[in-house]
Amino acid sequence: HTGVPRYSGIDSDAVWVSQARDNSKLEHFRFNFADVGASKAWGYPQNPLLQKIQYNYQIAPLVLEDEPFDVYLVDGRYRVACACVSFLHAIKTGGNMDTVRVGIHDNDANHQAGMRRHYDVLTTVAE
Fold first, then answer.
1. What confidence score (pLDDT) does residue 52 get?
2. Rounded to an integer, what distance in angstroms lies between the CA atom of residue 124 and that of residue 80?
3. Residue 60 zone, left/alpha/beta (φ > 0; ψ -120 to 50; rest)
4. C-alpha 17 chain-centroid distance
5. Nearest to 58 by CA among 40, 72, 42
6. Measuring CA to CA, which residue among 13, 69, 65, 66 is closest to residue 43?
7. Beta carbons of 31 and 6 less than 8 angstroms apart
8. Do β-strands 101-104 and 71-74 pair in parallel, antiparallel, or remain unpaired?
9. Radius of gyration of the chain (CA)
């Protein structure tokens, strides 16, 4: 047991989601599958123009959650959009915006040999 009172997450790998559901055996953990169609390495969609991809992935983990989370951790696809949706969810559900935290995995300035991820736009959004 992780000590986390609630978890809601999403992944584009149906096999992983199924295994996570089977292995968690915890009713307060929700694992959602985002159908992004056929994918390449690391879950990148082969056809990024499918309209269903972005919205399902960004919103599905939070649609059924009626209460804010203390911490939102964003990893995977569409990180800037998912972080923004996290802030919106916290506001909509009455989260204390002085204490709610949104973490972004790999949010370093020089990820992978100088490649910038441009997550700094979130600083403006968060303020």
1. 61
2. 12
3. alpha
4. 14
5. 72
6. 13
7. no
8. parallel
9. 15
The answer to whether the beta carbons of residues 75 and 18 sit under 8 Å apart is: no
Closest CA relative to residue 8, chosen from 78, 46, 79, 58: 58
Q: Looking up tokens 């935290």, which residue turns up? A: 101
C-beta of residue 100 within 8 angstroms of C-beta of residue 79:
no
**Running along the chain, 127 residues long, what does each successive block of 10 average in pLDDT?**
76 87 83 82 76 73 89 83 91 94 74 62 72
What global pTM score does this model have? 0.76
What does the block give as tokens for 41? 């390495």
The owner of tokens 């000590």 is: 3
Burial annotation 96-115 (CB, 10 A radius, 16+ → b, else e):
eeeebebebeeeeeeeeeee
How far from the centroid of its chain's Cα atoms is residue 99's Cα?
19
Q: How far is the C-alpha of 43 from the C-alpha of 5, rounded, in Å?
A: 28
